Amino acid sequence: MVNTIKIVAVIFLAIAIIGFGLFAYEYSIKTKIYQQTNSSINNTASNSYLFSIPMIGIVTPMAMEQAPILAVMKNVTEINISGYTFYVGKIGNQWVVNVRSGEKEYAAELATYIMDTHFHIIANILSGTAGSKNPYVLPGDVVIGAYVVDKSSIHYHNRGFQSDYTGVEMVVSNKSLINNSIIGGYGEVGPTLQNASYYGYGPGTTDKNYVYIAAFPASLGLVQIAQQAQLGYLPASNISSNSTINGLVKSQIIVGVIGSANQWTEPLVWQLDQNALYQTDAGENEGMGFAYVNAELGIPWIIVRGISDSPWFPNTYIGVYAAQEAANVTIYIIEHFSYSNLYQTVNESILSNVSNAKLNHYLIALRAYYSVGNVTMIKYLASNGTIITIISPNISEYTYAYGYKVLDSRIS
C-alpha cells in the first residue's frame, strides 16, 4: 500500500513539474511576443512623460531633408514606434519630435498619423525639397505651402478635357480643420444594417460629414511666421548650372500652392497642361497625405519646401542646399512659434503675387481642355535582363472600332 502511494505521489509530482514547465515556456513565449508587439511602450518606459509634453512635429521624407533638423536638436531621445524612429528633443526652448517618413503620400500619411496619435502635437511641419512648377520660383527659393492639392486626382475625360476627380474623401468631425478648404463635393449617406439588403446605386441623400477635399489650407498663424524668415544669396551660375552667368541672386520665400502627386512631371508642355487645372508653384510627393491626417485630427500644419530643381533649368539639382534652406525656415517657425491665428486657416489672399494662382486668378479650374499625342517608342525590361525596344508600337486597339471588333468576336 505504501509503495502504491509513493508511486502515485511520484506520478503527480512529475505531472506538476511538466505542467509548470509548459506554463513557464508558454509564458516566456507570450512575454516575448508582447514585448516585440509593444516595443514602442517598452523602449520608452523611462521616457513616458515625453508623450504628454506639448511639442511641434517635424516630418522629413528623405534622409538629406532630416539631417539638418537633427543637427540642431538638443537633448535628443530616440523612440521607436512601429519601425519608425522618432527623435524627441529641443530646438531652442521648444520641444519637437522629428521622424523620417519616407517618400510618397502613403509613407508620409502613416508616419504623420503615428506621430499625431502618440505624441501631444500642437503644430506640424513638413520640411523638405520640391521642384519648381512656376518660372518665378527658382532653385534656392523656398515655397511655403499655403495650400496643397492632389495632382494625381485627375479625371481625363474622353470629351477632351481634364477635371479634378472630387479630391480626397474625408470623414470629418467637429475638430477637423477644413475651413477655407476647396471642396469638390460630398458623399452620400451610406447603407445601414436595416437597408443594406436593398440599398442600391442612384442619387442619395448628401452626407455633409463625408467631404471631398480638393485643396487643404494651412495654418494662417504658421504661414505668417514663415513669411518673416530670411534666406541667403545663391550664385546665378548655381541656379542655372551655367558657369557663364555671373552675379548673386537673393533667394525668396514664396507663399504658394504645393502640387502633391505620386508622379514626377518634367516636360514643360506637360507642366502647362497640369498647371492649367491646378495652379501650383512647387511639386512633391508627400504633402497631401501629411495635410490630410493633420486636418482630420485638428492639428495646425504647414509645408516648407526648398526648391532643388526646375524644368526651366534642366541641368540643375541642388538637393542638399534646398533641404538646408527648408530646415532654416522650419527652425525659424519653431523658434518664433506663437498660438496667434494658429487654428485659423489661410485664404487665397495670402498667396504671393508671383504665385500661379494669384497671377491667373484661380487655384483649381473646373475644366482644362487638352490633346494627347501618340506613343512613338516603348522600352521594357525583359525577364532575362535585356532591354527591349519597340519602334512605332501598334496602337490600333486603342480605337473605338477595335472595341466593336472584340465585341463582335464574342457574340454568340
Task: Please characterize this protein's 3D structure.
Helix 3 crosses helix 9 and helix 4 runs parallel beside helix 8. By secondary structure, the protein is of the alpha+beta class. Helices cover 31% and strands 29% of the residues. About 5% of the residues have low confidence. The longest helix has 36 residues. It has eleven helices and 19 strands. The strands form four sheets. A five-stranded mixed β-barrel has the order 5-15-14-6-16, surrounded by four helices. A three-stranded antiparallel sheet has the order 7-8-17, covered by helices on one side. A two-stranded antiparallel ribbon has the order 12-13. The chain has three domains: 36 residues; 300 residues, Rossmann fold (3-Layer(aba) Sandwich), CATH 3.40.50.1580; 33 residues, no CATH class.
Keywords:
alpha+beta, Rossmann fold, single chain, 412 residues, 19 strands
- Count of domains: 3
Order of helices and strands: HHEHEEEHEEEEEEEHEHEEHEHEHHEEEH
* CATH C-level label of the largest domain: Alpha Beta
Spatial sequence of strands, sheet with the most strands: 5-15-14-6-16
Number of beta-strand segments? 19
Distance between the termini: 90 Å
CATH fold field value of the largest domain:
Rossmann fold
Low-confidence stretches: 22-42
Number of helices: 11
CATH-level-4 superfamily name of the largest domain: Nucleoside phosphorylase domain
The helix fraction, in percent, is 25-40%
Characterize the overall form.
globular
Computed over alpha carbons, the radius of gyration is: 28 Å
